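Reading a protein record of the kind used here takes only a little practice. These numbers are not coordinates but entries in a learned vocabulary of local backbone shapes. Here is one such record, which you should read through line by line.
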Amino acid sequence: MQAFIIDRYGPKQPGRIGEMPEPALRDDDVLVQVHAAGVNALDSKIRNGEFKLILPYRLPLVLGNDVAGTVIRVGARVRSFQPGDEVYARPDDDRIGGFAERIAVKSSSLALKPRNIGMVEAASLPLVALTAWQALVEAARLQKGQKVLILAGSGGVGSVAIQLAKHLGAFVATTTSTANVEWVKALGADVVIDYKQQDFSSVLRDYDVVLNSLGTAELNKSLQVLRPGGHLVSISGPPTPAFAAARGLAWPLRQVLRLLSFGIRRKAKQRGSSYTFVFMRADGAQLREITSLVESGAIRPVVDRAFPLQDTSKALAYVDSGRAKGKVVVQVVM
């Protein structure tokens, strides 16, 4: 099958289109003909080698952390899917490979595609929607009437997180550039901070939750926005000892992560707040919840551009540029 492959790690590795063997089908797997695959910043980070210690992939590697497509075959123990089903998923992080004609996905990580959207839109959702769900619903336990700040509201995670937070009944503030202010308001944001004109930490106060997807400076400023007892959730790090334990990482690596997150955990504690790092995981049950929200109109996919499989390297470069509004998708079946 054709796939987009990296042969070695490094930011200057462009990747290539080549032939790879069809993935083996385990008893609890579903073999999917990929119609489209979402492109995420995570793909570039994996290519650059940033996750080598946590996710030791074997090279050559097919990237791609979001897929939508049609079921071809199912494993011997699979009862919930059958050939012909239209499905979507965030594959488990040790079995990625969406930038290819076919992929084997664990059945527990898969869900039926929302009926009211196409394959390209469906492929844009799993990773960012699950990230938003696990950050706001699972980690922060965001409640109706609470105030949440979602940084980078025009990005892939931010654009879905705004919609999810509004569905939960929260008051939503977000940050974006001048060009996207009206656009994120249309997604549901109640307050929009143009980061080119204002510093969010000097404007906002007494928020219950902050969802951070940016760097260290924004992470530290986020604490100033929280009320005592508030919750800072970050999807861009630094990872915590709790994350290391959940991943079953080796003791030396656990100590490294403990040191990396010590500063922000201490600052949060001093302010009477809490800090959680979220590294999203595949979850078919949560994805079914998201399907219901999409079909009800509570969440709509936001797709900036679609590239053909042959232009996957260009799609990755476009995501890396930071210019995308919403998600970028690789279209495998045109």
Notes: Residues 127-277 form a domain with the Rossmann fold fold (CATH 3.40.50.720). The chain has two domains: 2-124+302-331, 127-277.
